[in-house]
Amino acid sequence: MSENVTHTAVVEDCFLMMFAGNRICEAFKEAGREHIRFSQYGSVTRSGDKFTVPLLEKYRGIWDERKEADRLSFKLAYVLGWLCHRAADRQMKVVFREAEPESREFPTDCSIYHDGFIYNRLYKGNANTPFPYRAAHFENELASLPAAAGLRVSAVEATVRSVWQRYLVGLHRFASEGGPAEEWIDKLHAKHQEHVIPLHRYAEAALTPDPVKVQRFIVDTNFYNEADTILQVTEALRRGEEVSPERIDAAYAEEPTSHYAHAVRMGYGYLVAASDFFQGDIDQETLKDRLDVGKKGRDGLAV
């Protein structure tokens, strides 16, 4: 995904509201608290609409008996993370269509500036988060880290990249162990996402943002409005403040104005719907309707 920081923040904010509120079942809160970092893997899945409802159906039937034996907390956190990521993905596509309708670039300047803004707004100098983004994530050769002065950073990066690639290759099972190696390699290449993430563009957006681009992609699109009640709630939670369930409910009930606030509200709504299903309050068809499964998103694409 391109909007790494933005999507991560949406998942976090939805989970923080879930922990502090009283609309979502204890099973979800337990899975989220124990495995909030693992929940981020839901952001890199594909075709999540095909498995989310069946998995929720399966897990709710065996939660009490098989929770520990089948490591269901991990699996449930993964599904919950995907629901929140999906909300961010759907809403951010709306912004991209509006801000850069002719762009075929990946990632877009719009998405990169969203990440830069969210880093500075929600993560910079804030240690009260399970995903501690730092300036070094965007810098050339991690310049702000003391250890960087004693290392050949480019060589270390190349080594780590190689180890990581070998690890990922080891996870693939496209063919039987005795199959032709050429066939396996061809399938691996076909699955490879041929995009290179341009870190220098992220460094610009996060560390030395262009005022013209900030105006175009943040201000003009109304990407983030601190006056939105739901964002006042999530920022308070990020500061470690106590927020009442009643305040969370009121914020969720209010229609926000900005795109980021819409994404958080949508993601939290997905968690509420999934929780209602998990507790047996609604059936599968109602859940699918509330998750907009199989319908067209705001960008006109099937989701």
Could you describe the 3D structure shown?
By secondary structure, the protein is mainly alpha-helical. The chain has 13 helices and no strands. It has helices at 4-20, 26-34, 48-66, 72-99, 109-123, 153-171, 181-191, 199-207, 211-219, 229-238, 245-253, 259-278, 284-291.
Helical content stands at 55-70%
**Biggest sheet record:** none
Q: Sum up the overall morphology in one term.
A: globular
Distance between the termini: 16 Å
Q: List the uncertain runs.
A: 296-303
Global mean pLDDT: 86
Order of helices and strands: HHHHHHHHHHHHH
From the alpha-carbon coordinates, what is the Rg to the nearest angstrom?
20 Å
Q: Number of DSSP strands?
A: 0
Strand content: under 5%
Number of DSSP helical runs: 13
Structural class per helix/strand content? mainly alpha
Give me the secondary-structure topology.
Elements: H1 4-20, H2 26-34, H3 48-66, H4 72-99, H5 109-123, H6 153-171, H7 181-191, H8 199-207, H9 211-219, H10 229-238, H11 245-253, H12 259-278, H13 284-291
Summarize the structure.
60% of the residues lie in helices and 0% in strands. The protein is mainly alpha-helical and 303 residues long.
